[in-house]
Design goal:
- It is built from 25 helices and 9 strands.
- It is α/β, with parallel strands linked by helices.
- The chain has 2 domains: about 450 residues, Up-down Bundle (Amino acid/polyamine transporter I); about 170 residues, no CATH class.
- Helix 7 runs antiparallel to helix 20 and helix 9 packs across helix 16.
Length: about 675
Amino acid sequence: MPPDQASPKGDEHKFGIGDGPSSDAHGHGHGHGKASFAALALGALGVVYGDIGTSPLYALRETINAAVSGQLGAHGGAGGGLELARAVPRDIVIGVLSLILWSLVLVVTVKYVFILLRADNNGEGGTLTLVALAQRAVGKMEKRGGGWVIALGMLGAALFYGDAVITPAISVLSAVEGLKLVTPAFEPYVVWIASAILIGLFAVQSRGTQNVANWFGPIMMVWFLTLAGLGIYHIQDDVGVFASVNPWFGVMFFFNHPGVSLVVLGTVCLAVTGAEALYADMGHFGRGPIQGAWIFMVFPALWLNYLGQGALILHDPSTIDNPFYKLAPDFLILPLVLLATLATIIASQAVITGAFSLTRQAIQLGILPRMDVRHTSEQTSGQIYMPRVNWILLVVVLALVWSFRSSSGLANAYGISVFGAMTVDAILAFIVIWKGWRWSLLATSAVILPLLAIDVAFFSANMLKLFHGGFVPVLLAAVLVALMATWIRGSAILFEKTRKADVPLLELLDMLAKSPPHKVKGTAVFLTGDPVVAPAALLHNLKHNKVLHEKNAILTVRALDVPRISDDERVRIEPIVEGFWKVELRYGYMESPNVPKGLAILRKQGLKFDIMSTSFFLSRRAIRPSATSGMPMWQDRLFISMARSATDATSYFQIPTGRVVEVGTQVTV
């Protein structure tokens, strides 16, 4: 992606990836310095670990069912429920438990908790943070450098959206399915109940999650303690499950059952879905609390619960249909269903919020067009709501629920998006550690390549499910990558075309000095994507109104590859000639631009003006397709459609609507 980009709706926006100060590789996040470690760790339980914390609902069930069904099929078994219940070989249960345990150790603990949490950008994490760090590491200023890094970032982001729609569907469905154990009468209504819960969840997003989020941590603590307690209670059914600690049993599973090993690998990954949330939400809680919550609460609870489920299946093979809920005594099943439903709602909330944050980052980095961003908390900048994203997610989630109608069906669609995104993270981490941290190639390879191999193995295993539901995240990712690529390419073409007709700003000011127009009182702010050339709105104002304000600010809003910018570094001002200044407002990719607040800082730097007597001039472009745009006609029309649907600059930059003057121009691309 070019370092500068013109906005399709006008020349008021400029994106410069990687122009910020170098990151602190050991940052600890923002805004939580005064909070206690315990409070932050409790908060992390509610926000970070909701997804992976609800995996015991379905992960072991799907994996052992896949293994046993595969074995029965290989031996000509009918695969019926009774035969399946009688055929749960001990080595399969121990092998699967070993694979799950060591997946949690290697993928979550080693890769994310101990390695990627150190690859932060001023305390922030996530796929697009890795993109920013990787671009910086490979030399972002090179004309040809970094394009493939952006491509990886687009792919990772697109796959995350797959996770964001599948997680609510599979989590809520798996929780509500427990009602069938309370009474079979609920079975016809499971999909309806799950849909009602999901509609309610998405409907309340506009009100913000701050008040509800205060309960997330305590509820998830109860959930993890319940997981551990149920597991411990049933481990006594067969203490031999502790043999799974030996990784040899996991390795031998592949040798003893080669016919089903790939299928099983494709379901084992369900146990680590949500691991990327550890990294993506680092800025909210800090590295230490996230690591502490995993090591001392989440990991032990998950491991004990999986051991308990395995011991129960070995003791009573008939429980294979739903080992999680059958850990509980009959009289506790209904309370457990209610608690599981709350936990899955929290897990769903985490990925919905993550989708909002990722979209805002993508907009700031120029990967997606502008969309309406609403802040739902005056105290926390990260609490945002994006209406368009919210309702698109809801439609897709409901479509998945009604298409697959069970958590088992959705399990086939889950792994591709999760491990596709994890593979992208591993590749970007390799670049960051090698080029950014300046490790030797040998040391980087020794650390990252084994973890990358695991991700690729999981991803490849899930590709076997491509025609059994796995096509859903692949199709979704393909559509999103096409949209992102179209936006980047179209913006670059538009920028180049408009630049040819631009007038250099200094040249225009020389002309004005020789033949000054009539001046009026007040301040005019002209938003532009390139401060070197005269803004189109300024040219049209001079051409049609034949006046010039006493004070004129040529304003550029710039997005940097750091999460946040302090107010001391927010504004840069440079006098040009009398009555003209160049002003640059700088924002991190985790921030939403607010032009009035940013300009208020100028008063401290000597530029006095009243925001309510200031006119903001914006150029609104009407884009027309062209046969010589350099893009196929379908992509040309897609770009124009995206540009037209983008949120206007007035709303996006939070400029008072009564102070805006828009000047229309036509451009062909």
